[in-house]
Amino acid sequence: MVGLLAACGGQSDSNDETAETVWDRVQEEGKLVAATSGTLYPASYHAEDSDELTGFEVEILREVANRLDLDIEFSEMGIDNMLTAVNNGRVDVAANDIDITEDREEKFAFSEPYKHSYGSAVVRADDLSGIETLDDLEGKKAGGAATTVYMQIGVEHGAEEVIYDNVTNDTYLRDIENGRLDLVLNDYYLQTLAVEALPEIDVVVHPTLAYFPNSQAIIMKKDETELQEHINGAIEEMLNDGTISDISQQFFAGADVSQEPDVEIEE
User: Fold this and answer.
1) Measured between alpha carbons, how far is 194 from 74 in angstroms, rounded to an integer?
2) Which tens digit of pLDDT belongs to each residue from 58-106?
3) How far apart are CA 58 and CA 95, in angstroms?
4) Burial bucket for residue 114 (CB in 10 Å: 0-12, 13-18, 19+)
5) CA atoms of 261 and 164, how far apart (whole Å)
6) Residues 6+ positions from 169 with CB-CB distance below 8 Å
7) How many CA atoms lie within 13 Å of 49's alpha carbon, on the beta-carbon side?
């Protein structure tokens, strides 16, 4: 079972009218290169007993490329490397349950969002790891990748960060069960599916903790407006014709994550 957590050549001098954009290059090469983890169930993972890469965002990327008459090539890496890969041009885009935040919007471009969710936590089943609200994170050991929004939230509330690379769900959940971690903060839908997939591990999704309403999208290099516009056109078509809703229900046990959830959020 795959990981629990929580892009593209640059445009040259804007005064150079002959400068090749990423969209120009993508069209010339006939393919879109996308970074994703391959370990984040159900967003991006390998099907059981198979080398096939699939998942909610993988299939969205495939359909976007198809609607743009492009092939798609996936480059698998940890989340902490994806944004660097977008900036240095190793990949054209990245998608891996990447939250749209003000800080990221200053540095990158995003597509239209196609997933809406909120933050939760996986904790020990017997005592909820002693957590009722975010204020109880003081001194707790929170596992995850260093650059995720969820790790930042944990640290801001006094949690001790325990950094993992591109590991799988069972590693996180067993470390919560055995006490190496107290919790993992992440997306509610991803955590619910991960816990349900590993019922032998004595952990639960926290029953009342809900915070950080959020939206996810494809991320790409800042100011690549042509690429962004073409991807947005495909995403908007897929939202309007129900394609993304259908893909969501396939990977999120019937839930439509393209709609904003109705839940009381902790301030």
Assistant:
1) 23
2) 999 999 999 999 999 999 998 879 999 999 999 999 999 999 999 999 9
3) 8
4) buried
5) 29
6) 1, 2, 3, 4, 41, 194, 197, 198
7) 0
Tell me the pLDDT of the chain averaged across its residues: 91
pLDDT of residue 4: 54
pLDDT at position 8 is 36
Pairing verdict, β 141-144 and 219-221: unpaired
Nearest Cα neighbor of 85 from 193, 264, 211, 221 is: 221
CA distances to 140, 168, 214, 241 from 245, rounded to whole Å, are 37, 26, 18, 9
Residues 6 or more apart in contact with residue 209 via CB below 8 angstroms? 119, 120, 121, 131, 132, 133, 134, 266
How many CB atoms are located within 10 Å of the residue 196 CB? 10
Among left, alpha and beta (phi > 0; psi -120 to 50; other), residue 32 is beta
The DSSP H or E segment spanning 244 is helix 243-251
Name 202's Cβ contacts closer than 8 Å, sequence gap at least 6: 124, 125, 126, 177
Confidence of residue 244 (pLDDT cuts 50, 70, 90): very high
**219 neighbors 93 (Cβ within 8 angstroms):** yes
Q: 74 and 34 in contact (C-beta within 8 Å)?
A: yes
CA distance from start to end of the chain: 33
- Nearest 5°: CA angle at 39, between 104 and 184? 70
